From TrEMBL:
InterPro entries: DUF1707_SHOCT-like. Residues 8-60 form the DUF1707 domain. It comes from Streptomyces olivaceus. This is DUF1707 domain-containing protein. PANTHER family: DUF1707 DOMAIN-CONTAINING PROTEIN, MEMBRANE PROTEIN-RELATED. Residues 216-241, 248-274 have a biased composition (Basic and acidic residues). Residues 216-274 are annotated as: Disordered.
Length: 274
């Protein structure tokens, strides 16, 4: 892990890479259980690279003697750019266990060829929407005993479900949807007893925001179009509804004088006839 910018915020994938190193160290006898639990708690509570770096500084990684490398460049997942997301690189983690607790794998992380998970009175979530993939086909093996797990995949990914449920079940609704060319294939397998494994397809947050912005722009353009048409209609309506011009004071006086002259002529005719 680089110390170039220790104040930068760490991601879930960064914490998972450190947690995987700790699990390997526990299995190799480099850490006892108390040290492992203490460092694991510190890992999941860490917020920056500076807090994560000391946790594995004295532990080797794959015999190389270096702490796990964490990318300082937070690249957004490019929708549809599957060639760039099937990396063939080292996975972020390969297993997870939840006993009366829970776990998550989400954000920018690398899905291994096979991920084994177990939940007893607990739950887990696999969010693959922003993930990279170590292979073109990955297997997520879920064992849920009185617990549940959820697998979230992005549009374009083919899903195959092969799990067995006893008083529980696996969600098959996303099966049969063809994948995009070059997209990875996700196989969900395992066993559920009094539990369940759900599979759902969701857009990424960035894609949702993009669609929301497009709809907002369309509404704005329609509103502007209506506003442009409204002044012309309004002016025509004003012309139709305009009241007839009222006579001025000069016109009224002229009418009075004309009536007076007419009355005067009528009186003269009567006098002449007498």
């Amino acid at each position: 892990m680089t110390d170039d910018a220790p104040e930068l915020r760490a991601s879930d994938a960064d914490r998972e890479r450190v947690a995987e190193v700790l699990r390997d160290a526990l299995a190799e006898g480099r850490l006892d259980m108390a040290e492992f639990e203490e460092r694991l708690d510190a890992t999941y509570s860490a917020r920056t690279y500076g807090e994560l770096a000391p946790i594995t500084r004295d532990l080797p990684v794959g015999g190389a003697g270096a702490a796990p490398e964490v990318s300082m460049t937070k690249r957004p997942a490019a929708a549809g750019d599957w060639a760039g997301r099937i990396t063939g690189g080292e996975p972020s983690s390969t297993w997870a266990v939840a006993v009366m607790s829970g776990f998550q794998r989400k954000g920018r992380w690398t899905v291994p060829k096979r991920f084994n998970s177990f939940a007893f009175w607990g739950g887990g979530e696999f969010d693959l929407r922003e993930a990279d993939f170590a292979a073109g086909e990955v297997v997520i093996n879920c064992v849920a005993i009185m617990g549940g797990m959820q697998v979230v995949v992005p549009p374009g990914v083919e899903v195959v479900v092969r799990g067995i449920g006893i008083m529980g079940g696996f969600d098959h609704r996303e099966e049969g949807v063809p994948g995009d060319p070059g997209a990875p294939r996700v196989v969900v397998t395992g066993f559920a007893f009094w539990g369940g494994v759900g599979v759902e397809r969701k857009l990424t947050r960035a894609e949702k925001l993009r669609i929301k912005e497009e709809r907002r722009q369309e509404k704005l353009e329609r509103r502007q179009g209506r506003d442009r048409d409204r002044p012309e209609q309004g002016s025509a309506r004003k012309e139709l509804d305009a009241p007839a011009a009222r006579p001025g004071l000069h016109d009224l006086l002229g009418e009075d004088r004309a009536r007076d002259r007419e009355l005067e002529r009528e009186r003269r005719r009567r006098d002449d006839s007498r």
